[in-house]
Structure formats: C-alpha cells, structure tokens
Amino acid sequence: MMGSALVMLKTPGLAFFYGGFTRAKNVLNTMMMSFFLMGRLRNLRHFLCTLPLRSSRAFSPS
Fold first, then answer.
1. CB 31 within 8 A of CB 16
2. What is the three-class DSSP state of 56?
3. pTM of the predicted structure, to 2 decimals
4. What is the pLDDT of residues 34-44, one digit of tens each?
C-alpha cells in the first residue's frame, strides 16, 4: 500500500522530467499518459491477483 502511494507521488515528477525533453505542449500529454498507464496497471494487477480465486470458483460444485 505504501509503495503504491509513493509511486503515485513519483509519477507527476517523472512526467515533468520526461516532458522537459520535449516541447512545452507535450508535458500535459506526458502526464496524462503516465496517469493513464498507472490506472491500467492497477486494473491489470487486480485482475491477475484475483484470477486464482475466480478459477477455483469455476470448478467448485454449486
């Protein structure tokens, strides 16, 4: 939990760092991509962590 919070704090700084290598209008785009990918990775992690629970329920008798 704490690691995820630290990554969320680090992401805007990283976006500003990478945005500094490009033109000024691309800084916002870089930030948006960083936050979008952070959300996608959260969903992927949730899906992969709950996959064993789903598969065990699929084969259990109802």
1. yes
2. helix
3. 0.52
4. 788 888 888 88
